[in-house]
Amino acid sequence: MSTNVVAIVGAGMAGLTAALSLARHGIRSEIVEQAPQLGEVGAGLQISPNASRILRELGILADIEHRWCEPQEIRLTSGVTLGALAAVPVGAFARDRWGAPYGVLHRSTLQQALLSAVLRNPLCKVHLGCRIEKPGDTEIARAIGEQPDLVIGADGVWSRTRARIPGAPKAHFSGNIAWRFTMAGDNAPGFLDPSNVTAFLGPKTHLVCYPLKEIGGFNVVAIAAGLDPGETWSAEGSERQGRMLAEQFSAWHPEIRTLLSNLRGATFWPLYQAGPGRWQNGRDTALIGDAAHAMMPFAAQGAAMAIEDAFELAGLVANTPLPEALATYERVRQMRAARVGRRGAFNRFAYHARGPIRIARDLVLATRSPQSLAADLDWLYGYRAKG
Ligand SMILES: Cc1cc2nc3c(=O)[nH]c(=O)nc-3n(C[C@H](O)[C@H](O)[C@H](O)COP(=O)(O)OP(=O)(O)OC[C@H]3O[C@@H](n4cnc5c(N)ncnc54)[C@H](O)[C@@H]3O)c2cc1C
Fold this sequence. Notes:
By secondary structure, the protein is an alpha/beta fold. The chain has a domain at 5-69 and 103-171 and 274-349: FAD/NAD(P)-binding domain. It is 38% helix and 23% strand. The chain has an eight-stranded mixed sheet. Strand 11 and strand 12 (217-225) form a beta hairpin. The longest helix has 30 residues, at 322-351. The two termini are 20 Å apart. 48% of the residues are buried. It binds flavin-adenine dinucleotide. Residues 9-15, 32-35, 42, 45-46, 131-132, 154-156, 160, 178, 180, 221, 269, 271, 289-290, 297, 300-304, 306 line the site of flavin-adenine dinucleotide (FAD). Keywords: FAD, Flavoprotein, Monooxygenase, Oxidoreductase. Pfam families: FAD_binding_3. Residues 6-341 form the FAD-binding domain. Its cofactor is FAD.
């Protein structure tokens, strides 16, 4: 039996990309989103070539390219001394080596570009302000007005759609907290670099900064070990959280400590990860994006993996009987996400290193050329998702 209509729960990167990817194969989708409108949730995103290649295929890249920045390098810098440790070239190098660009932008720029394309597409329909609480067949059919052939759970780290899949992953707190904020260029200290992504590394902490063209300023993310704040996604940073941040970065360079102590409007993001489990039920449901594999942002790949999942699932569903498509999707994508997860874990170990491990890390990095560091990422950025 062919797949004609798909219900997608969630209109984040995963859900919107899934709708466009299915439409490319002539498959109709109905997206159900709890938010009454899609606003400015989140902050900056790095979009690597493995994902921008798909956005180009879906006709989205042209819409965002003139609004994003293409950094020249991803730099690793000591957060204690501000000394350079290593750099991976991106910019023109990325286009040449991996066949697609590396860009940084506000999350809402990408979400709005995807949403506009979805709204223009007669095969896609969005139901805003509609939360799926118990994702049984009756509630899904009530939400979209018909019984779908397939339900895609693109409803993020707290996914309710997981309840349709016995043995689906569960989310757990990673022990790390991110503080995310943006700042205007004229207020920014001189060590923030408008041409590059900079990851400042320190003991048990790191800080990532990159330019955002949309605001003429910077996106800053500070990540450190923290307390478990319970089931919540983001919240305004409180005074207590501000003190926690200052304590965690107390060994850092004074200029960075000053930046963090003057923070206004930072949002506080406890970082959750999805554990192992099934991503499909062999019949009529699959999970994509954070619902399947919420991961730590140490490799900056969560949204990229959501985009790859959506594109590959659509291709399989269009060309293979559903149970087989779902099984292949799970096998192929779990292998890919596991490899990305291992890279993230490696970055976490290297970024947050202390004492002798930090000294060894710095010595090893000093021997590596930018090209050899880039070659280590061929499997990640050079990946060509099959849609
Ligand atoms: C600090 C930080 C930095 C990051 N940086 C990067 C980066 O640089 N590059 C990168 O690729 N990734 C990055 N990520 C990861 C990335 O943001 C996520 O992996 C990605 O946004 C996940 O997309 P998604 O569509 O799966 O989920 P979400 O974006 O969470 O979307 C889920 C959608 O489902 C809706 N929803 C949820 N439950 C229901 C329900 N019951 N009924 C109806 N609707 C529902 C939600 O409202 C939401 O719109 C970062 C993450 C963090 C925390």
